[in-house]
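Listing S7. Sequence submitted for prediction.
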Amino acid sequence: MTTARQLVHAYEAGLGRPLSAATDEPDPGARLAATLPVWALAAGSVAAAAESANRFRAAAGLSTVPIRLDPARIAAAFGSERLFRRDGRAPSVFAELSGFFRARDGWVRTHANYPHHRERLAAAIGLPVDATADAATARFATMSAAEIEERAVAADAVAVRVRTEGEWATSPEGIAAATGPLVGIQLSNTTATTQGAPHAATVAHPLRGVRVLDLTRVLAGPVATRTLALLGADVLRVDPPRLPEIEWQFQDTCQGKRSTLLDLRADPEAFAELLAAADVLVTGYRPGALAAAGVRVEDRPGLIHASVSAWGRTGPWGTRRGFDSIVQAASGISWLEGGPDRPGALPAQALDHGSGYLLAAGVLDALRERQADGRGREVRVSLARTGAWLLAAGNRVTGHPAAEAPDPGTAVTHGEVTTAAPAFADYADYSAPAPPYGSAQPFWPQRPI
């Protein structure tokens, strides 16, 4: 049985050394230069997914492939927003009310990219929903950082006080976030599936015939399911009709997938049919949210339920919302990467991307183990746990130069959209660009033979 220790070994294999047979770059981490070892996180998490794919191939009787880690491709995948173009235009990654704001006694970081998060944040601090960044700046300056954070939690908005590394490490929420394996894999029930294993696998597409329901947004979950799609899985992304996705973000992370719109509460029968025939369910919901929507994953024999959270499922922050930038700010990473008077950020949303590849690695191992016993498993990662690894990894570099821009030679273009190529050097591109949002019907096509 694959253990978290084996995944961590692959994850840490990227520490400080070029691992690629595809390039002779003297400094593989130059495009992810930071105080913290972001290259180790990036290369190690991609290595973990690649090694898990090889274990799956071997168990299926397929040939394994040499693992080639190309620093330029990995850096481009992790910083894909810097390469993304639509009609030649770069995206606005963060909205007007997302970012660092100075409070009366420190700093806070907010996340309001989605309209409903903007509405909640504005209400939390007593501003109209159309308030400008200048108005928010003036309002934040009159409040303490702790008060802003408390109001945000009460309003289900997203804002945190910027903490030092020491403050976070000694807090109950920081201790909980650093506890446990990077990738948790455990049996979910004792009932084996009666569905047979797919027989259409190939070396390039070992997951061909595997069905994946993707109920995730933003980055970590979509990166994980995009990786599974790259390896041949049929990935159906399901979004709620009333909460539209950020368009450029969808196009940057949904290559190789199908996309459908479905309200789990309004049409539980349709979702139940999808779930009954799925092999993997990937979610980014907070604890209890699926059950509240009437979804009982424990009733599905043999299901691999993979989940990503911001803070982990235990501890005092287990039910809070969070994003990569928010976890960086709360955990002390922002102070380490900032200047003397202002917090900063990693050169990529590395907690999201790294967690995504680790989640894909865990799913691959869980599927391999299910082939032997037919039993379902839970696979879990959290951004805060990945951040704790990064903070504990050592190999810090102070006074480093700014991160170099991604290599434009690593981009691929389809029509009006340019995105980063896959992080895996053996794949020149994804099987297809992101489909039109909501363009698929909510059903599974026949499995390939």
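Caption to Listing S7: primary sequence and predicted structure tokens for the chain studied. The CA atoms of residues 143 and 179 lie 33 Å apart. The chain has a mean pLDDT of 91.
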